[in-house]
Specification:
With 216 residues, this protein is mainly α. It has 11 helices and no strands. The chain is 68% helix and 0% strand. This is TetR/AcrR family transcriptional regulator.
Length: 216
Amino acid sequence: MPRNKYPEETVQKILDVSLKLFMEKGYENTTVLDIVDHLGGLTRGAFYHHFKSKEEVIDALTDRMFHENNPFEKVKQEKGLNGLQKLQMIMNDTTVESDYRTISAQAVSLLENPKFLAEFIEGNKKVLVPAYQELIEEGIRDGSIQTEYPKQTAEILSFLTNFWMVPSIFPFTAEEGIARLRMIKEITAFLGVPVIDDELLKNLEESIAELGDENQ
Protein backbone atom coordinates (compact mmCIF):
# COMPACT_ATOMS: atom_id res chain seq x y z
CA MET A 1 0.00 0.00 0.00
CA PRO A 2 1.47 3.40 -0.91
CA ARG A 3 2.59 5.66 1.93
CA ASN A 4 0.09 8.31 2.93
CA LYS A 5 1.51 11.61 1.69
CA TYR A 6 -0.89 13.68 3.78
CA PRO A 7 -1.10 12.10 7.26
CA GLU A 8 -2.39 15.33 8.84
CA GLU A 9 -5.30 15.44 6.40
CA THR A 10 -6.13 11.84 7.28
CA VAL A 11 -6.11 12.63 11.00
CA GLN A 12 -8.39 15.62 10.48
CA LYS A 13 -10.75 13.54 8.34
CA ILE A 14 -10.97 10.87 11.04
CA LEU A 15 -11.67 13.53 13.67
CA ASP A 16 -14.28 15.29 11.51
CA VAL A 17 -16.12 12.03 10.78
CA SER A 18 -15.90 10.95 14.42
CA LEU A 19 -17.29 14.28 15.63
CA LYS A 20 -20.26 13.97 13.29
CA LEU A 21 -20.99 10.41 14.45
CA PHE A 22 -20.49 11.17 18.14
CA MET A 23 -22.92 14.09 17.84
CA GLU A 24 -25.48 12.00 15.93
CA LYS A 25 -25.23 8.63 17.71
CA GLY A 26 -23.35 9.39 20.90
CA TYR A 27 -19.87 8.23 21.81
CA GLU A 28 -20.94 4.95 23.40
CA ASN A 29 -23.06 3.94 20.38
CA THR A 30 -20.35 4.69 17.81
CA THR A 31 -17.86 1.96 16.93
CA VAL A 32 -14.51 2.14 15.17
CA LEU A 33 -16.15 0.29 12.28
CA ASP A 34 -18.79 3.03 12.06
CA ILE A 35 -16.03 5.61 11.78
CA VAL A 36 -14.14 3.61 9.14
CA ASP A 37 -17.32 3.10 7.10
CA HIS A 38 -17.68 6.89 6.79
CA LEU A 39 -14.07 7.63 5.84
CA GLY A 40 -14.65 7.42 2.09
CA GLY A 41 -12.35 4.55 1.19
CA LEU A 42 -9.84 4.72 4.01
CA THR A 43 -9.25 1.35 5.64
CA ARG A 44 -9.35 0.20 9.24
CA GLY A 45 -5.57 -0.05 8.99
CA ALA A 46 -5.40 3.65 8.14
CA PHE A 47 -7.48 4.41 11.23
CA TYR A 48 -5.27 2.34 13.52
CA HIS A 49 -2.16 3.85 12.00
CA HIS A 50 -3.16 7.16 13.59
CA PHE A 51 -5.30 6.11 16.57
CA LYS A 52 -5.02 3.04 18.77
CA SER A 53 -8.64 3.22 19.88
CA LYS A 54 -11.89 5.16 19.87
CA GLU A 55 -10.85 6.57 23.26
CA GLU A 56 -7.81 8.19 21.66
CA VAL A 57 -10.07 9.75 19.04
CA ILE A 58 -12.34 11.51 21.53
CA ASP A 59 -9.30 12.58 23.55
CA ALA A 60 -7.84 14.20 20.42
CA LEU A 61 -11.23 15.69 19.55
CA THR A 62 -11.72 17.38 22.90
CA ASP A 63 -8.16 18.71 22.72
CA ARG A 64 -8.69 20.10 19.21
CA MET A 65 -12.05 21.62 20.06
CA PHE A 66 -10.69 23.23 23.24
CA HIS A 67 -7.90 24.93 21.32
CA GLU A 68 -10.28 25.99 18.53
CA ASN A 69 -12.67 27.46 21.10
CA ASN A 70 -10.23 28.33 23.86
CA PRO A 71 -12.26 30.48 26.30
CA PHE A 72 -9.11 31.96 27.80
CA GLU A 73 -7.99 33.27 24.42
CA LYS A 74 -11.52 34.53 23.79
CA VAL A 75 -11.66 36.64 26.94
CA LYS A 76 -8.27 38.20 26.17
CA GLN A 77 -10.03 40.07 23.36
CA GLU A 78 -12.49 41.60 25.84
CA LYS A 79 -10.55 44.78 26.59
CA GLY A 80 -13.41 46.35 28.55
CA LEU A 81 -13.54 43.59 31.18
CA ASN A 82 -11.49 43.30 34.34
CA GLY A 83 -9.85 40.07 35.51
CA LEU A 84 -12.80 38.93 37.61
CA GLN A 85 -15.30 39.63 34.83
CA LYS A 86 -13.19 37.58 32.43
CA LEU A 87 -13.21 34.65 34.84
CA GLN A 88 -16.97 35.01 35.22
CA MET A 89 -17.33 35.03 31.44
CA ILE A 90 -15.40 31.74 31.24
CA MET A 91 -17.63 30.20 33.92
CA ASN A 92 -20.73 31.42 32.10
CA ASP A 93 -19.52 29.81 28.85
CA THR A 94 -19.78 26.42 30.55
CA THR A 95 -23.57 26.83 30.56
CA VAL A 96 -23.80 27.57 26.82
CA GLU A 97 -24.78 24.68 24.57
CA SER A 98 -22.05 23.85 22.07
CA ASP A 99 -20.50 20.90 20.24
CA TYR A 100 -17.49 21.17 22.54
CA ARG A 101 -19.67 20.97 25.64
CA THR A 102 -21.52 17.94 24.23
CA ILE A 103 -18.34 16.08 23.30
CA SER A 104 -16.72 16.97 26.62
CA ALA A 105 -19.74 15.58 28.46
CA GLN A 106 -19.48 12.35 26.47
CA ALA A 107 -15.77 12.11 27.29
CA VAL A 108 -16.39 12.39 31.04
CA SER A 109 -17.01 8.63 31.31
CA LEU A 110 -13.42 8.03 30.15
CA LEU A 111 -12.16 9.52 33.40
CA GLU A 112 -12.94 6.18 35.03
CA ASN A 113 -9.94 4.92 33.05
CA PRO A 114 -6.76 5.60 35.11
CA LYS A 115 -4.78 6.53 31.98
CA PHE A 116 -7.23 9.21 30.89
CA LEU A 117 -7.69 10.45 34.44
CA ALA A 118 -3.92 10.92 34.73
CA GLU A 119 -3.87 12.81 31.41
CA PHE A 120 -6.81 14.94 32.57
CA ILE A 121 -4.99 15.86 35.79
CA GLU A 122 -1.80 16.68 33.88
CA GLY A 123 -3.74 18.82 31.40
CA ASN A 124 -5.28 20.80 34.23
CA LYS A 125 -1.87 21.36 35.83
CA LYS A 126 -0.16 22.43 32.60
CA VAL A 127 -2.96 24.34 30.84
CA LEU A 128 -5.88 25.37 33.02
CA VAL A 129 -4.11 26.30 36.26
CA PRO A 130 -1.66 28.70 34.53
CA ALA A 131 -4.55 30.18 32.51
CA TYR A 132 -6.61 30.74 35.67
CA GLN A 133 -3.56 32.18 37.41
CA GLU A 134 -2.96 34.67 34.61
CA LEU A 135 -6.49 36.05 34.91
CA ILE A 136 -6.34 36.08 38.71
CA GLU A 137 -3.12 38.09 38.56
CA GLU A 138 -4.78 40.47 36.10
CA GLY A 139 -7.65 40.86 38.56
CA ILE A 140 -5.23 41.58 41.39
CA ARG A 141 -3.62 44.33 39.33
CA ASP A 142 -6.92 45.96 38.37
CA GLY A 143 -8.38 45.56 41.87
CA SER A 144 -11.28 43.26 40.99
CA ILE A 145 -9.70 40.28 42.80
CA GLN A 146 -8.26 40.29 46.31
CA THR A 147 -5.87 37.46 47.11
CA GLU A 148 -2.21 37.15 48.05
CA TYR A 149 -1.99 33.65 46.59
CA PRO A 150 -2.76 33.69 42.84
CA LYS A 151 -1.20 30.31 42.02
CA GLN A 152 -2.79 28.49 44.95
CA THR A 153 -6.15 30.15 44.24
CA ALA A 154 -5.90 29.02 40.61
CA GLU A 155 -5.21 25.46 41.75
CA ILE A 156 -8.22 25.48 44.08
CA LEU A 157 -10.44 26.96 41.37
CA SER A 158 -9.31 24.29 38.92
CA PHE A 159 -10.00 21.53 41.43
CA LEU A 160 -13.44 22.82 42.39
CA THR A 161 -14.69 23.36 38.84
CA ASN A 162 -12.89 20.64 36.90
CA PHE A 163 -12.71 17.78 39.39
CA TRP A 164 -15.23 18.20 42.19
CA MET A 165 -18.00 18.91 39.68
CA VAL A 166 -17.12 15.92 37.43
CA PRO A 167 -19.51 13.08 38.37
CA SER A 168 -17.25 10.25 37.18
CA ILE A 169 -14.60 11.43 39.68
CA PHE A 170 -16.85 12.63 42.53
CA PRO A 171 -20.34 11.14 41.93
CA PHE A 172 -23.30 13.24 42.99
CA THR A 173 -27.07 13.43 42.74
CA ALA A 174 -28.71 16.55 41.33
CA GLU A 175 -29.39 17.77 44.87
CA GLU A 176 -25.79 17.19 45.92
CA GLY A 177 -24.50 18.89 42.74
CA ILE A 178 -26.53 22.01 43.46
CA ALA A 179 -25.24 22.03 47.04
CA ARG A 180 -21.68 21.84 45.72
CA LEU A 181 -22.29 24.76 43.38
CA ARG A 182 -23.56 26.89 46.23
CA MET A 183 -20.53 25.94 48.31
CA ILE A 184 -18.18 26.79 45.43
CA LYS A 185 -19.87 30.19 45.26
CA GLU A 186 -19.15 30.73 48.96
CA ILE A 187 -15.59 29.37 48.83
CA THR A 188 -14.52 31.45 45.84
CA ALA A 189 -16.06 34.57 47.37
CA PHE A 190 -14.15 33.89 50.60
CA LEU A 191 -10.93 33.46 48.58
CA GLY A 192 -11.46 36.90 47.01
CA VAL A 193 -12.39 35.49 43.58
CA PRO A 194 -16.21 35.57 43.47
CA VAL A 195 -16.52 33.94 40.03
CA ILE A 196 -20.11 32.77 40.51
CA ASP A 197 -22.76 35.45 40.84
CA ASP A 198 -26.45 34.83 41.52
CA GLU A 199 -27.44 34.73 37.84
CA LEU A 200 -24.72 32.23 36.91
CA LEU A 201 -25.55 30.12 39.96
CA LYS A 202 -29.16 29.93 38.80
CA ASN A 203 -28.10 28.87 35.27
CA LEU A 204 -25.75 26.21 36.60
CA GLU A 205 -28.36 24.89 39.02
CA GLU A 206 -30.84 24.56 36.17
CA SER A 207 -28.27 22.65 34.11
CA ILE A 208 -27.69 20.17 36.92
CA ALA A 209 -31.38 19.85 37.72
CA GLU A 210 -32.03 18.81 34.12
CA LEU A 211 -29.70 15.85 34.58
CA GLY A 212 -31.89 14.55 37.38
CA ASP A 213 -30.24 11.80 39.37
CA GLU A 214 -28.53 10.16 36.39
CA ASN A 215 -25.12 10.54 38.01
CA GLN A 216 -26.09 8.89 41.28
